[in-house]
Sequence to fold (60 residues):
Amino acid sequence: MPFPSADCAEEEWPTPREDHDTSLSSIFIYRTPKTWEKKRRKKKKKKKKKKILWERRRIF
Fold:
């Protein structure tokens, strides 16, 4: 039953869009895949930093 949910989200898109510029809570309303990708990218970057730290320790 995710079809009706998608329709509702699409209709709400144009309204909270203006709020998105002023409020960060609007992002939660969107819950688009773009935000998810951004969060995933941040997690990957953190993992890379940890690996670098390990390599530096090995060199020492």
